[in-house]
């Protein structure tokens, strides 16, 4: 499976790119990266050379093209079932898919007002009624999921799953914007941030030359 190539945007800002990148890393699948800087005059043209949607991320696998973060994560899970990117239990797996889909489709207030930024700290910024409601929902979701399904490990469903990949950018947002959380949520955030792959992504993000104003 060494012919996998993931097309991504800036690591400092592209939350959608982080999700499948982290899933691939946690699955242990080798892949190449093509990084296309965002918000440049030629960004759209360069992305369209790989992705029919004109957006990142996009996974290239031989003659196959898979776009959209969640679709790529699903594809990776099917490529390597032994990686366990979904829970084994049917109920837990259904809930993991539900929370992943909720992250994929929702939380517009959080996305719009508190975008991912790994090059700077913005404590207290971006707080609106909409983003505060999203923060409360994320905290409740993490807390409840850990309580119900996290007995066998430190991630949302015990071991690392796609659900954790989908929420990894939110972990960075809570850090960047200094969101107050309790011990349970802090422990989960620390677990995600301690992943070697997350450390590598964040280090690369901080080293990038591009700066995009919020």
From TrEMBL:
Domain GST N-terminal: 4-84
Keywords recorded for this protein, A-Z: Transferase
GO terms assigned for molecular function: glutathione transferase activity; maleylacetoacetate isomerase activity
GO biological process entries: glutathione metabolic process; L-phenylalanine catabolic process
Keyword Transferase set for record: yes
Gene3D superfamilies documented for this protein: 1.20.1050.10, Glutaredoxin
Pfam families assigned: GST_C_2, GST_N_2
Protein name as catalogued: Glutathione S-transferase
Source organism per UniProt: Azospirillum thermophilum
